[in-house]
Fold:
Amino acid sequence: MTERYDISLNTPAGQLTSAVEVPTGFVPVSAIVPMMRRLGEEAQALEERRSIEAGRAISCQKGCAACCRMLVPVSAPEAFALREYVQTLPEAEQTRLAQRFAVTRTALLARGLWNRLIEMGESTDPPDDAALEPINRAYFALRLPCAFLDQDVCTIYEHRPAACRELLVTSPAEWCQDPVAHPVDALPVPVRIGPALSLLWGELTEQPPKLIPLATALDWAARHEQENRPRWQGTHILDRALDKVWRFLSQAFQKES
Structure:
């Protein structure tokens, strides 16, 4: 059973109004992931419209996959949701993905990065963008395609992490191939859904919030499967999730003032 809620949020780019269906029973925290991603996309759409009206069109397009070779952070709820989705795929597709992830793991082990990424997912320290920057650069330097990428097309597009959805640029697409030499102009992100979900999960489970590298997310979710078994009332999860959304929107307004 679900219950419909009308949500209205003020963002720097305008008002967001959305209707969501929330489970009335007790569900895992991963159940909120699709709704949260949709709210993030709707907020991002307002930013995209504002950018286009200002004469700055989005240069991202299908087949432009430089960002699919970056270190993508996902929250614990997203990692669980992604594993659940992969488990619904035909066995042949699951086998193919397992092989691709094995190739990625071998490449990262050879460069001494795999264990560092595992440590990121297990860290009890709050996520720190500055501290992670050296690992981000080392990872991108390998130009490893995401295991979910097939001929530069995302095979999990409808289920891709929030971080993938939020990276939109107005600078020339070719600049994304070397963002160190050519810093890209990224669209503002009013609500960072991954960190918001990370904070939500930390609050509900009374654990430190964390972000997990996508390359290790399925491995992490399998090892932490027990932590996805607790259930909370859907309306309670929604209430706490919106609290995190409002926190990020408040920060976005402060940046613009």
About this structure: The CA atoms of residues 47 and 53 lie 10 Å apart.
